[in-house]
Amino acid sequence: MRDTDLREAADLIDRAGRIVIFTGAGVSAESGIPTFRDAPSGLWEQFDPRRLATPEAFGDDPALVWGWYEWRRAAVQQVEPNPGHRALAAIEQRAPECVVVTQNVDDLHERAGSKEPIHLHGSLFAPRCSACGRPATVANGAPAVEGRVPPPPCDHCGAPIRPGVVWFGEALPVDAFEAAVAAAANCDLLITVGTSAVVFPAAEIPQVTARMGGAVIQVNPEPTPLDAVARVNLHGTAAEVLPALVEAV
Ligand code: APR
To answer: Which atom of ligand 1 is nearest to the CA of 84?
Structure first.
């Protein structure tokens, strides 16, 4: 990462009135939560999303799907936010206006101090009834091992409880997506961290800012389709680059 790039990014943050922070799985990688598409550790490198992350998969084998998400919930409960999450919370705190928009279903932004991040793909901590849609509470202490776990029944209608995440083939929560698009269209600066930017419509968010004339800073050790729209590309990891960026501001 070049000092001049870090300097330029710091100046953009310093001058920005409205900031959007947009994150993907890469921001949680250094907390020990695997990403999806990074070989060999990515979840979709190890598991078949067609058997685990679609409404049809849940219909076919609810215990397999529920057990897998409970395993992921347990993994998140056993780790801590990393310096990347904390640096983003610090940027958020010092900015006149800032919104965090995440594709992640973990709660590490919240635990790092971010205020009401917008979860575009739902949350591992917001289960609901698969039929009546009522929010459900599930006991803490999810199974630490991956395996079949029958989902609990809904207290109200008895149907199986499902994970509160957005599966492939499902629409994003309308309010969350509209709020994210509005924030991206009206911001001076969008900082995108740790996303491959290949899953739509979420990946549209940084493009909205660029089209509206706002600046984009990208933090990612690898190139992505956002390299083309980013004013500054900081090629490095979240936990290394973001604290240095806060230091430079
Ligand atoms: N710091 C910053 N970026 C990182 C790090 C790190 N330590 N480690 C990996 N990355 C980058 C990778 O280079 C990659 O570009 O993070 C990105 C992770 O990409 P994906 O695994 O595709 O995750 P994401 O972009 O969040 O996926 C989007 O796809 O599967 C669905 O719903 C799921 O929300 C998810 C969506």
So the answer is: 1
